[in-house]
Write a sequence for this structure.
């Protein structure tokens, strides 16, 4: 597989993973390039510091590397990556006895009166969403995060969480219901 | 129509009244909830990423450095397909059973078969459960921590509970017997299992108690071998020569693991 072909996005994640299993190291580099930032964002949303994010993302890819021979061609790869990342986060927070909080030093910067109105609105909405997500159970939050912010379809989310599609839909339904109630209170929806 | 198509309709303000859309909304509680208020929540979620904070710079070179450690024997073991890992683990678990059967206890004719079956199933089942947790790949959903702790507790306690069952033939010979020999024999049965199971783990789980799983599996497999071989069922003998295997080996393994981690580079520590 040619470098240009990989980087152009014409090659799917599943094709890259299959190539990597066959020995193409460049395919792994391309997967890292595609997903490292997304995973870091997801991990940061779980309350990780910069250093923890770096470490957890690296551990995610290391675990992917170790498990590469389990991969069957065509199997969706994104559920693998996000499940590994979530499992590593969960274990890390369990060991540290930490609940899902954003450390004070990482809290969003104070709203700057000089910031353009659309940035202000976006930041406020992000804060509201973060607060609303924090009211969900871990199961419900994962479904929303994986489906809406990591771009994973509900069937893939079900696979990643080891539950049936119906169970994933029920969790999504309860999460949406709760989000609507919490966001409604603020008149945002 | 599937959920992805419904989501596009909801986000695009499309026709929710169509027969196809209505049929899907009747069947799918998640899409039904998303469609409430004309899809306002869906549009909010689609337009609002939870964080636009800068993420730290991630270097593939750092990852490559960690992966250098994956090229050795240990790395190759970890990277074996899970089916192969399981086959090797099962073969190792069967070794003490084979040895126990080859040197079967002389009182097998009078020892209650139901009790023997229960003991072997208890130890064997808990050994298998320990291996299941140890080998479970991280790309699969992990079981509840409570289940893990229950299996761990059962594995550590079962040998002691079973040791307190009444002796089958209390009048025959010295009740205490030679517990040190049984301890040594059971441990010898366990060591190869510990080596195989431990070597095939992929690491990455730092939760309490996880590190002792290979030793617990080995100890329990060793106890299966002992149950098949040793004719002394007196509680005093089992409590001094058999049950301690399931305590001492996991503790020793825990200490060895902690010591060996001290000498590892930081990146390798995190991945163990």
């Amino acid at each position: 597989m040619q470098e240009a072909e990989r980087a152009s996005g014409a090659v799917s994640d599943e094709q890259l993973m299959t190539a990597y299993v066959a020995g193409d190291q460049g395919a792994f580099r391309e997967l890292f390039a595609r997903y490292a930032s997304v995973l870091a964002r997801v991990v940061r949303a779980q309350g990780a510091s910069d250093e923890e994010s770096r470490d957890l993302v690296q551990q995610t890819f290391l675990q992917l590397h170790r498990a590469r021979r389990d991969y069957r061609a065509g199997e969706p790869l994104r559920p693998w990556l996000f499940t590994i990342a979530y499992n590593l986060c969960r274990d890390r927070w369990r060991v540290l006895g930490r609940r899902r909080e954003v450390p004070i030093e990482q809290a969003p910067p104070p709203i700057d009166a000089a910031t353009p109105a659309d940035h202000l609105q976006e930041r406020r909405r992000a804060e509201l969403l973060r607060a609303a997500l924090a009211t969900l159970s871990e199961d419900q939050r994962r479904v929303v995060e994986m489906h809406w912010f990591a771009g994973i379809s509900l069937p893939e989310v079900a696979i990643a969480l080891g539950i049936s599609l119906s169970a994933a839909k029920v969790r999504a339904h309860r999460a949406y219901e709760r989000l609507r109630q919490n966001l409604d209170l603020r008149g945002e929806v | 129509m599937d959920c992805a198509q419904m989501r596009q309709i909801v986000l695009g303000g499309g026709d929710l009244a169509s027969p196809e859309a209505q049929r899907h909304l009747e069947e799918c509680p998640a899409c039904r909830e998303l469609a409430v208020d004309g899809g306002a929540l869906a549009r909010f979620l689609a337009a609002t990423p939870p964080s636009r904070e800068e993420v730290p710079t991630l270097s593939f070179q750092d990852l490559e450095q960690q992966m250098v450690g994956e090229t050795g024997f240990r790395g190759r073991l970890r990277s074996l397909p899970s089916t192969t890992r399981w086959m090797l683990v099962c073969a190792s678990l069967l070794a003490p059973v084979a040895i126990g059967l080859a040197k079967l206890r002389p009182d097998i004719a009078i020892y209650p078969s139901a009790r023997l079956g229960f003991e072997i199933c208890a130890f064997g089942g808990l050994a298998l459960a320990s291996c299941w947790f140890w080998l479970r790949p991280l790309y699969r959903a992990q079981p509840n921590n409570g289940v893990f702790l229950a299996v761990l507790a059962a594995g550590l306690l079962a040998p002691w509970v079973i040791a307190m069952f009444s002796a089958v033939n209390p009048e025959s010979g010295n009740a205490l017997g030679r517990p040190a020999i049984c301890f040594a024999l059971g441990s010898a049965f366990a060591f190869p299992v510990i080596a195989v199971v431990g070597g095939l783990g992929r690491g990455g789980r730092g939760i309490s108690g996880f590190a002792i799983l290979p030793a617990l599996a080995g100890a329990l497999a060793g106890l299966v071998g002992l149950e098949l071989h040793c004719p002394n069922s007196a509680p005093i003998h089992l409590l001094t020569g058999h049950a301690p295997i399931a305590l001492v080996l996991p503790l020793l393994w825990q200490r060895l693991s902690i010591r060996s981690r001290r000498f590892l580079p930081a990146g390798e520590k995190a991945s163990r």
